[in-house]
């Protein structure tokens, strides 16, 4: 079910923003037999590229690309194998692991239900049909949570090492995996405290507290060291220059080094040593870039509003908009179970089984960090939540009605049917899915854009439209692929001024139409007030300029473009003019 849908979807959509960059770095890596340093320098963890791209591109020969964010001819075919590798290497293990865990805890029927819900989720299918980092991170973080629960259940040395290794791999899959560090620290402290309380029959003395603190700190440092080693190994043990990039006398006043150490002779000695003698492991550079990115901010769109540093409620809204009715029902069910456990039964953490406790705490911490994040780039960033919700939801459901097999089978059939209906409602472009509660897929662009709806994947649909309507077309495209690579013949409005009377159709990506990435100018507001005459999927809207109101609105919009200086300007592709 999963492979069939992702195989079809991977061939029905054009290459997306990040895939162009990953493809370029992977081809460079294959050619030079060394991980392209530009990958980590851009804040991208390498595991997805190493496992999905490198095996798929092993026989390719690629020249140096001056701009890794700009696609080239032939990319449309090159991306197909990495996409299928992503589904096989990261998607199948996630689904199989889900089945095995639930089967062990709840039986075959519940395991089938959990695996079916996961393989029918539009969020999972969207990432499974693209060769990006999101599904890799979802799988790696899921396995890390299971490793945490395994150690919590039986804290021996072997499980401790596996736990640390799983955390390192998750961080090397996507640097958002650092959320596992506070999770692990919390469970280490809680487990050691529980063991101490279990051994003591009287009050805990201050000496006991000191010993506990030292023991927890020692174990946590050991865990961090093992996780760091695992993460660095996944970066192929590469370094990125000196730990401190510039000498002491060139260090800026706002540098973290100055803020932490000051400017005295000791600070100078430390910074000089770090600059001249200590190499900087690649993971350090990648994680540091992400912290910098948070400080810079990033253009974001939510329900007609724009922000560089996002909103705390962005991800809750994205989850509500893009989750299926079944996934929302499971979420509400779990919230109800949690409230009942906290208020009515007053359940103590020690009475919760390790896996349920780990899933709850990990989900809460991850969601809390995402809500606090100033980067609201898309719903795909919360993909790890979905496997955890399905695992916990099915587990709790079975516990409630395990003695009523007919009811359980009926509910399972209904949930699976609902999930399949939701995933099939968007045919093959799972990225554009929005549930019916918020207006459905056709209303999606008024709620979210960018990678939650329009990530450059609509060129194949645009080609189908152009085959039926061969008149001249102008295009404002949000993406990194070359339209020519998909057979699209279009005038690029970013390349040169457009005479609106010289073309019949104007196609524009939903992200630009809604005003995102236009530095608050919102040039296409006049055009947005008019109903599109056609669509290429849901990500590209098309206007027939034979109608005077559309031509007038487009002219007014294009008049603002020279001043807007869109942030996508460096992605301009060279059109050819018929």
Report on the architecture of this protein.
The protein has 578 residues and is mainly α. The chain folds into 3 domains: 2-234 and 302-424, no CATH class; 244-277, no CATH class; 458-571, no CATH class. Helix content is 57%, strand content 6%. It has helices spanning 2-12, 17-32, 37-41, 47-56, 75-78, 80-106, 108-119, 122-128, 134-153, 157-173, 180-199, 206-234, 256-261, 265-276, 282-296, 314-322, 325-344, 354-372, 385-401, 405-424, 459-468, 510-513, 525-528, 548-558, 561-564, and strands at residues 239-242, 279-281, 300-302, 305-307, 473-476, 491-492, 505-509, 534-536, 540-544. The strands form 3 sheets. A 5-stranded mixed sheet has the order 6-5-7-9-8. Strand 3 and strand 4 (305-307) form a beta hairpin. The chain is globular. It starts with a helix and ends in a 14-residue tail after the last helix.
List key phrases describing it.
578 residues; mainly alpha; five-stranded mixed β-sheet; two-stranded antiparallel ribbon; 25 helices; 57% helix; globular
Assembly context of the chains: single chain
Q: How many helices in DSSP terms?
A: 25
Give the neighbour order of strands across the main sheet. Answer: 6-5-7-9-8
Write down the domain tally. 3
Rg, alpha carbons: 26 Å
**Overall strand count:** 9
Tell me the span between the first and last alpha carbons: 44 Å
Q: Decide which structural class fits the backbone.
A: mainly alpha
Portion in beta strands? 5-15%
Q: What is the average per-residue confidence, as pLDDT, rounded to a whole number?
A: 89
Fraction of residues in H or I helices: 55-70%
Largest sheet: 5 strands, mixed
Shape: globular
Low-confidence stretches: 563-573
Keywords: Cell membrane, Glycosyltransferase, Membrane, Transferase, Transmembrane, Transmembrane helix
InterPro entries: LipidA_mod_glycosyltrf_83, RgtA/B/C-like
Subcellular location: Cell membrane
Main location: membrane
